[in-house]
Amino acid sequence: MLYEELTGQENLRYFANLYPNRESLTPAEALRQVGLDPELTRPLGHYSQGMRQRTSLARVLFSVPELLLLDEAFSNMDLESVRQMVEFLAGFRQSNRTIVITTHRRALAAPIADWVLALKAGRVTSVEPGSPTL
Predict the structure, then answer these.
(1) CA dihedral of residues 45, 25, 94, 48 (deg, nearest 10)
(2) What residue spans in the chain does CATH classification 3.40.50.300 cover?
(3) In angstroms, how far is CA 52 from the centroid of its own chain?
């Protein structure tokens, strides 16, 4: 949930104001972590889909969560955005935080996964160790 008429930084400031006593990153720091320029002045409605995905991730990250749940985190992203997202997630994972990712693009998640589970019709069909290489 982001507001299309606000910039990325304005969106994050809005959400930060909802929790004024919570320890967090600044909106600019969170945007930089996901590879976005916090000084972008155009509203979110003019961002690419990949930039919107990263802004959504920044909204979650600025509160420095211990657990990150991502549903189709790589959808609607170009290859460079996906590469940046995988690189970021690898770094996040190394900071002793837990990430759960659902994706149809297994090959993107496998290099940073401890475990890869395949589901079919709501049932686990396989469990394999990942291959964290980043």
Answers:
(1) 10
(2) 66-134
(3) 10
Tens digit of each residue's pLDDT (9 = 90 or more) over 74-106: 887 788 878 888 888 888 888 888 889 998 888
Tokens, residue 117: 């589970």
Q: Is the pLDDT of residue 65 over 60?
A: yes
Task: Report, at the CATH architecture level, how domain 66-134 is classified.
Answer: 3-Layer(aba) Sandwich (3.40)
pLDDT at 18: 86
Provide the 10 A C-beta neighbour count for residue 103: 15
Three-state SS sequence of 26-67: CHHHHHHHCCCCCCCCCCHHHCCHHHHHHHHHHHHHCCCCCE
Distance CA 85, CA 53 (A): 10
Distance separating alpha carbons of residues 117 and 64, to the nearest angstrom: 26
As given in the structure block, the two tokens for residue 106 are 């297994």
Q: Name the pTM for this structure.
A: 0.75
